[in-house]
Structure formats: C-alpha cells, structure tokens
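Methods: holo model generation. Sequences were used as deposited, without trimming of termini or removal of tags, and paired with ligand SMILES retrieved from the corresponding compound records. Each pair was processed once, and we did not select among multiple samples. The sequence and magnesium ion SMILES for this entry were:
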Amino acid sequence: MKKIINTPETFVIEMCKGLIKAHPELDFIEKFKVVKKKEINTNKVSLISGGGSGHEPAHAGFVGKGMLDAAVCGDIFASPSIKQVYTAITKTESKKGTLLIIKNYSGDCMNFNEAAALAREDDIDVDAVYVNDDIAVKDSLYTVGRRGVAGTVFVHKIAGAAAEEGRSLAEVKAVANKTIQNVRSIGFALTSCTVPAKGTPTFELGADEMEYGVGIHGEPGRQRMPVAKADDLAAAMVSQIDEDMSIAGAEVAVMINGFGGSPLQELYLFNNSVSAEIENKGAKIYKTLVGNFMTSIDMAGASVTVLKLDSELKALLDAEVNTPALKN
Amino acid sequence: MKKIINTPETFVIEMCKGLIKAHPELDFIEKFKVVKKKEINTNKVSLISGGGSGHEPAHAGFVGKGMLDAAVCGDIFASPSIKQVYTAITKTESKKGTLLIIKNYSGDCMNFNEAAALAREDDIDVDAVYVNDDIAVKDSLYTVGRRGVAGTVFVHKIAGAAAEEGRSLAEVKAVANKTIQNVRSIGFALTSCTVPAKGTPTFELGADEMEYGVGIHGEPGRQRMPVAKADDLAAAMVSQIDEDMSIAGAEVAVMINGFGGSPLQELYLFNNSVSAEIENKGAKIYKTLVGNFMTSIDMAGASVTVLKLDSELKALLDAEVNTPALKN
Amino acid sequence: MNKITTKDMTVIINTMADIIIENEVPFCELDSAAGDGDFGMSLAKGFKQLKKEWDELDFDDIGAFLKSCSMVIMEHCGGASGPIWGSAFRAAAKAAGNVEEIGLAELAEIMQAAVVGIQKTGERSFGRGAVVGDKTLIDALVPAADSLSASADAGEELLSAMQKAAAAAVAGAESTKLIAAKMGRAGTVGDRSIGYPDAGAFGLGVIFTGIVNSLS
Amino acid sequence: MNKITTKDMTVIINTMADIIIENEVPFCELDSAAGDGDFGMSLAKGFKQLKKEWDELDFDDIGAFLKSCSMVIMEHCGGASGPIWGSAFRAAAKAAGNVEEIGLAELAEIMQAAVVGIQKTGERSFGRGAVVGDKTLIDALVPAADSLSASADAGEELLSAMQKAAAAAVAGAESTKLIAAKMGRAGTVGDRSIGYPDAGAFGLGVIFTGIVNSLS
Ligand SMILES: Nc1ncnc2c1ncn2[C@@H]1O[C@H](COP(=O)(O)OP(=O)(O)O)[C@@H](O)[C@H]1O
Ligand SMILES: Nc1ncnc2c1ncn2[C@@H]1O[C@H](COP(=O)(O)OP(=O)(O)O)[C@@H](O)[C@H]1O
Ligand SMILES: [Mg+2]
Ligand SMILES: [Mg+2]
Ligand SMILES: [Mg+2]
Ligand SMILES: [Mg+2]
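and the model returned the structure below.
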C-alpha cells in the first residue's frame, strides 16, 4: 500500500484538518468528526449528509452555500456513529428543521435514523431521504434495496438550493425525493480500492479484468469482465440506465464521476463517449459535471449518473453554489 | 496498462471533445488542438499557454474568465507544433497583444518561440514568460534551467487577472515574471505515470520506493528513496523550498497539487502536514489550493508549491475567475 | 463452573475484546467478498476503546456492566456494527438486570434478548429486523441462543451448553455461504454474495469458539 | 554507387522513416531514463505522416524534396523533435539546392548545414545552440558530418564514407552515456542523466546504421 499517509488511525482526522486549513470558512468539530459551516442560517432548512469517509470530496467538500450545512465523517467506509450524527443535528439546528440525506446502506440508515430519533426527543424537527441510484444490482422486494452512490451529489445540490430559497422541510424533502426518483447511476472499476487499515486491495482483478457495476466501497457489481473500450463501456452503461429509466425525449444532467485513481483526462475522454450515447438515446444534455465527486478511496474507474430534469430541477441545479468541491 | 481509453492515437482529441461537451462556453479547433474561449475580448491582453497533454486540467481547464484565452494541446508529453501555437495566437489576436506562458522545457520553448516569431511577422505583438518553479534539480549556468511545473497555475491566475484589469502587455508580462520569481515547487511520485502510446510505466519503482523531486513527465528528481510518511515528506519539501526562497515572515499562497493518481483525501491529509511546516517556518498562509491542477497522467504523488505574496499579487489572486478547473 | 458472576462476565467480555482485536484483519477480509472490507476494523475499534476505557466501566453487577459496555460499543464501533452490537449489549444488559450471578437459563435469556434488540434496531430503519436466512450475524446468533435455551430446558451443564452454542454459531455461519444476502450492506449486491459466508456471522462463530476455549 | 540522385534520396528518406517507425517503442524507452519517454512516439508521428503524405511531396530535385519533407516533419513531429528535425531538414534542403544528383562532398556539406540549422533553432530559444558534449543528438550528428567531410577531403568512396559516418554517430551516441545533459529536457535533471545515452543521439546512430546497411 503506497499512500500519502502518516498512520491509518489518524487518517480521517488529518484529512479533515487539511480540508479546514484550505477552507477556513468551515468548522471542524474534531471530537465528532463533523465538518460544518461556520455560520448556520437558522431561517433555512439545515441539510446534513455524511457516511463513511473515503468518498472525498463527498461529503465534507459539499458543505457551503447552496448545498450542505454539515457533513458527518465516519472512518473509512464505516458509517459515523449515532452520537456523531446527533451532534451534527444539534450543532446545525434551524427553526425550519433538518433534512438528513442518507445513502442507502444499512450502517448509515441505522446510525442516522437512531440519531434522528434522539434529536426528535429534543424537539428538533428531523426528516430524512435515502438515495438509492445505483442500478448495478437489481432491486428486489426481499433485499434492502439499491445502493446510494454519485447521484447523492445531485440530491445535495438540488435540496441545498431549495433550502436556500427558504422552502419548508416538507418541500425540501419532496424535491429531494423527486431528484432521487429521477437519478440513476452505474460504475465500473479498473482497480480495487485499498482501505488504509487493511492495507491490501479489497478485491483482486487480473491485469486485463475489470469489475462492471462496482459499488463505491469496492463491493461487487454485475460482472467481472475483460477490460472494455471507453466507447463500449459508455454504450452499455447508458443503455442500462435507459432501460431502468427511459431518457428518450428528456432533458438530463450528466455526471461523469471518477473513483479517485482515474485521472481527469480519462474522465473527459469518457464524457465524450457517454454524451454521444446519451444523445443517441434521444435525450438532450442540459448540464454536465466531470470530475471526482463520489470516490472510492484510490480506485481507478468511473461512474455515469443521469438525472432527468424538469423546469424546477433545472432552476435548482443552476442556483448559486459555493462549496470546496462544487461552485458555479 | 488499464485506462479509460479507446486508442492511444485518438486519446487527446477525444479528451478535448469531452471537455468541450462539458463546457460549451469553450471552443475546440480540432485540426490544431486549440481550446479557446468562444468570445475573445480584443481589449485585453490575450494569454496563451499549453504544452504536451497529460497534465489535465492544465492547461485547457484554465481557459476562461480571469485566466487563459487559449490552450494549445500537444500529444501526451509532447509540445504542440509551431503551427498549432501560431494558430492559437492568430485566433485569439487582441489589440493589446499576446502573452505566451511557457513551461521551461526545450520542446515548448522552441515551438512557442518559433510560433511567436511567425506571428510577429504578421504584426501581432507577442511576448513570452518562462515558468521554472521546480527546485528539485539545482539550476546551473550550464544547463537549460529549471523545469516549469505546478507554479504555472499561479502564473495563469495572476497574469489572467492582470489582463482582465486591462493592463498593457508589458505590465501583464511584468506581473507574470514577478510571480515566476516568487514561486517554487517540489514534488514526489509514489508510482510512475504510463504514457498511453508506450503502454508501460515510464520508470520502475519498488513496492516500498518513491521518487523524490520527480518532474511532471516522470523525469527523475533528487533521489530514489524508501516511501516516507506524510509529515516527513512535508518537512523535507517545505525546508527545501525555504532554503531556495526564504519564506519566514512572508504571506504565501500554497498549492497541494495531485499528480493524477492520488485521491483528494490524501491531498487534504498532506495539506495538513504541509501547512503546519509552512507555519513553522514563520510564514502566514493567505490562501490554499488543494486538488489536481498540473498532473502527470496517472502518476500517484503530489507537489507542493509556495508563492510569496505582496498586496498586488494578493489582489490578483483573489480576483474573479471562472474556468472549468478554477473558480472562486 | 455452573454460574457466571459479574467478575466472570468481565473476563468473558475481555476475552471477546481480545479475540476481536486479534482478528481485525481476517474479519476485514471476510467483509471484502461482498461487503466493504471494514467489519474487522469497525468492530475492533469499539472493543479497543472498551479496553481503553475499561477502568471507567460499571462493575456493580452484570446488567450495569453490560450496559456500560453497550455505550462504548455503540459510540465507537463503526458502520452497521455500532448500532447492531450496541443494541445487542443494551438489550442483553436489560435482560440480565442488576444481578451479580446468572445461570444457564439466564444466559439463554440474555442471548435471546440480544437477538430481539438487534431485530428492533433493524425494524426501526428497514421496517423489519433480520431473521435467519437473511445472511447476517443473526444466522449465527439465533442458533447459538436457541441452543442455550434448549440446553437450559434440558438441564445441561453450563460449560458444555456454551460449547454446543458455539458450535451452533459456527454451523449457522457456515450455512450463510450458500445463500444470497437480503439484509446488510451485502444485501445490495444480490447473488454476488453467494459462496462467501457473512462476515458478522462468521465472526460470531470465531468469537464464541474462542470464548468457550478460554473457559475450558 | 558514387552519386546520390533525387530518386536515391527519396529511397534513403523512406528507409529512414521505416527505421524510425520500427523503433518507436525502443526510442521511447531510451527517452524514459532521463526524459519524458516520448521521443520514439514524437519522431515516429512525423515520419508516419511523411509516408502518408508521400505522394504529395515535391520530387523535382533533392533540395525541393528535402524541403517538402521538412514542412511535414516540423508540423507533425511532436515536442522538441518537431523544430529540431524540421530545421535540420530545412537547412539540409537549402544546402542541397535544386540539384538532381550529389556526391560525397555535397552530402558532407548538407550534413554540416543540418548541424548549423539545429544550432540556430536552439540559439533562438536558449541563446546558444547545442554543441558536442551537451548530450543531445548533436553528439552523434557532428561526428557523422565531420567524418563525411574528412572522407570527402580524402577522396574516399561514397558508401564506405557513409559507413564510417554511421560508425562515428554510434560512437558519439555511446559517449553521451558518460556525461550529464546540459541541453534538452534531460538538461533539467542534472546528474541523473549520467549512465544513460541521449535518446536523440542514440536514435541517430541506429538510423544511420540502418540506412547504410540498406544501401550495402
Ligand atoms: N440489518 C442487520 N441486522 C443484523 N445484522 C446486520 C444487519 N446489517 C448488517 N448486519 C451485520 O453487520 C455486518 C457488517 O458490519 P460492518 O462491516 O461493520 O458494517 P457496514 O456494512 O456498515 O460496513 C454484516 O456482516 C452483518 O452480519
Ligand atoms: N537544444 C537542443 N539541441 C539539439 N537537440 C536537442 C535539443 N533539445 C533536445 N534535443 C534532442 O531531442 C531529444 C528529445 O526529443 P523529444 O523527446 O521529442 O523532445 P521532448 O524533450 O520535448 O520530449 C533529445 O534526446 C535530444 O537529442
Ligand atoms: Mg462499512
Ligand atoms: Mg516530450
Ligand atoms: Mg462492512
Ligand atoms: Mg521526450
């Protein structure tokens, strides 16, 4: 394992401190690993997200005007604890209530929900939405549902803009859920990620193999297969998204999200392939984001996220945003 | 070689097209691989940079308000040709003249200079500055001087802001050179980069080795050494920068630049180590940039850049900027 | 040995912590197949903290001791393990009550209460708690608890009952290899979890086996 | 063979292109030690383009042919190689003039002109052109050109003079191993270039050797 690191134990704290040093407009509550805005506007709905670390810039990089009020940072790939989330809720309390944006993983759901229950006992108005945009694995009635991945960033952006407009908690929740209903993602990995504490790759890939449909924690996806060309990957991914949520005739926002180990040059190249496929399906691209937004430590690979837009979502997507990792 | 790619031959063109699809405010002259602003303001000095590709987002990602007017894209690590640079100069001609911002490499110097000579024959007022911020290898009277690396991004930013203010070519050149005189960088690699056309790593590193003082094309640096801790690297790098250009008592801008394969989490962690060392040396940090700005394809590793500021440079650093890779 | 005193319980939990800390890396590897590779780390983190805060725990009685453990575990175990193991210890503490000694029947009840505690936590978040066959640690914990209950009904000896319970946990963990996960993080990867045991279930088998070995 | 006709020159340049294209990867590897690993690619790109545009080249005479080559090379060789090889061909063309046949003396003059062309390009950018000892292709080109001049003065036979010149280029390339680069990209890495030959010089040795072998 070659990383820029001191010790695995101090990794998350040092990373958060480094973020704060570069962004003095943010605060870091070290004991609970909460990154929050210095000034909390108590006249708008507070938005909190978070989860395991290892997805940087998600989520702390999205704290700022027009997105989140706080991000709760767990250890690498491990949900933050109930007490951490509870602290974030109390430290960003607003007169308009708090919305938790949770990626749909068991650990996150349990810790965030239990924390919300505690906060409700304190008479804080807390509600939650669950992002589940990853189409890699078929949903079924018997399972816990789909994973939440890069589509979460669009939920942050749109809910953030709605909150900034002064909408009520119910309204912000409604538009967050509308976003969740209209966003789909799928990703692939060329290499495994390496969790610092473990020190070796989470999964093994042959020199000519890739994992198609991988999750953002190195979880397996649809299939192990030979490395495919960018154009072929784009065709398969866009087709599968289109099968799950037809995009013909729609206006869409697209995110080409790198997993951490793939350079921007490859992401831009991939956007060239993906955007052509999306237009082939009869959709119109309204906005495109290319970069590392929801990573998987140092995994090489990328995901494609498509969000179907209406005029409300377009306006909220375009609204002012100023965070470390997303500005307009 | 595992990359998101179709063929090495089409790599640069597809990448530029993918960039343009995400940033429709930019134009791509495919035949000459020039990325330029759609609207050229002929009442400000035009700024052109570029060089070999493989350093994304540099330089095309810095085309936009407050930075460059055009970026000329060579093949991976190969300077663009005279004709390409000449085309960029003529297509962005302004009444106030053109400044070329050249990283100090033989190929870039020759192609940009010869192109400038051609443009001068067309009565275009062209001047140039040469960035040489890499302190890894000692300069000597007998060599071509130091390499230009991540400090180039600060030169783009500051010259861009000066041009935007309406300053003359001589004035913009002067402040660009002031920036060059006050900026120093040093980097290290944990892995080699892999040039797509070659398909194998440029250099070999053992499992516990790193290259200290590496260049942004995988050129060797000061020494091959065992992988060091983030804190120890930061101490060595900041000390060497301070030896080359004393920073005690100065206000500085800092850039923690990833080389493409190192995830943001490690860069933020590294910023924590570096900023402490800089403050130890008695300097005050005015602004910090953390991210991938001047990469080396997919190399894992990072560089530290320190720019000594005065009130003029601070104002220009803070001025409005809106490009794909840098906004405020 | 026919009774478990408060002191015995602290020794058992201390052994448990040692086993968990020892197995940090192998437990992570178990979680790599269909999960995210952090189970060992998440669990060990809480139990390392438990050992660190050991002297501040409440040693008044078995219930108080388990409850003080639950607070540390809930706070310091990462991921799903925090709420799951935290609620298991909390429910166990409540079931134990403020007593300084328990027998096999009470141990069985405590384990059954832990099962219910975990299921209630699941219910609050997912509408239903995990049951046997969902491929979670419940697949090891339920057979172990049921084995203890059966042994108690049959009037068996404490240590041999615990040995049987550990074997039941191991067998339960083994059976998770054959099925696809329906709950937990692995519940999002579908059939790709088949062929690998659930990390939590397998871990429980290892932990229970280690504890009974230390007592024998 | 005692003269080089326009036709001969096109065959020589065509052979040169083939050698360069064949050696794309090894030439890149040569450039990896102290450079950026693209020399083979940069050079091959221009000479591939030359073969592509072959039918549109100017075959009127030796000077015209070399000049039309220089335009393609300057435009399509990447990096430093574009201006360097482009200006070498351009200067060579000028020195050759509009003739349809040259002898050894003229060949020597053409090569000397190429040296000067490269140096003038360097001068415009760096204040001075590369000389022998700077660890650039000049370290191979100058001995080769000088060998041709000496052979011409001695009235030697064309082919054997070319063989000697190729050997001189190889020896010159070999000698670059021992020194640190002062010009070119490797000129920024200091002593770290010692031990490796200069890619451009070594490449010239390979190319000249290949050409004389094809003529023998
Ligand atoms: N709903 C649930 N009920 C019971 N046990 C669960 C549940 N979800 C997960 N688990 C257990 O937790 C283990 C994973 O723990 P851990 O790796 O710490 O959590 P995470 O999935 O957040 O990474 C699984 O192997 C499983 O045994
Ligand atoms: N100033 C110079 N004069 C003569 N030859 C040079 C000069 N600079 C570089 N070269 C030659 O060019 C070669 C490198 O070419 P290439 O790899 O295409 O360029 P770059 O350095 O831009 O990557 C060197 O090995 C050297 O022989
Ligand atoms: Mg986890
Ligand atoms: Mg080059
Ligand atoms: Mg896990
Ligand atoms: Mg080169």
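The longest strand of chain C covers residues 4-5.
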